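Hey,
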Amino acid sequence: MKSERRVAGRKEVEGILISDLTSITNYSVIAKTGRIVNASTSGFLVEISRRDLVPKTLRQNLNLESLLGQQVALYLPQMNLDLDGTVSRTTHVGKGVFAVAIDFSFEVPEYWRACLVDLLPMPGEMR
């Protein structure tokens, strides 16, 4: 599956808590929790600790490539907001932490994505 390459400025964010990263593709919870570390109008990057992965098969691997192309949904408890999109990239960044890039669904209007990115706090802004 070839994905469209979008170019958008990334914003480093405060580490917004996410919960229940769920595969819409196969209706299963992938991770109990994680945090958004940067975002743009095209998508966002979530860091997930191995201990927060729910499927045993994912916890036992050093890669999450099986998630590529899956449609996912997640919840931002601090904002009482559900987000959805498609997993476009996964990387093991070390020490049991994975980075999962998620592209917003095409149905989400660009102005809404831009507003969301503006609302996400930059590092140090929440102290």
